């Protein structure tokens, strides 16, 4: 998570207000995508478990 925060701060030019706006914008985009595609918190785990190969 720290590398993502550093990238956002670097992109925002070390301006905390701009970085906060970018983080909020990203959250809004992710939430909108999840709502449009009917995703919930369980989808990621279910997808990972269903595609995992157990050495077969």
UniProtKB/TrEMBL annotation:
What InterPro entries does the database record attribute to this sequence?
DSX_dimer (IPR014932)
State the protein's name: DSX isoform F2
Instruction: Give the top-rank taxon of the lineage listed in the UniProt record for this protein.
Output: Eukaryota
Q: Which organism is it from?
A: Operophtera brumata
- Doublesex dimerisation domain boundaries: 1-40
Q: Which SMART domains match?
A: DSX_dimer
């Amino acid at each position: 998570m720290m590398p993502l925060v550093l990238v956002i701060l670097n992109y925002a030019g070390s301006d905390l207000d701009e970085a906060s706006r970018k983080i909020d914008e990203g959250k809004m985009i992710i939430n909108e995508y999840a709502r449009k595609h009917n995703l919930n918190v369980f989808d990621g785990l279910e997808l990972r478990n269903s595609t995992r190969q157990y050495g077969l």
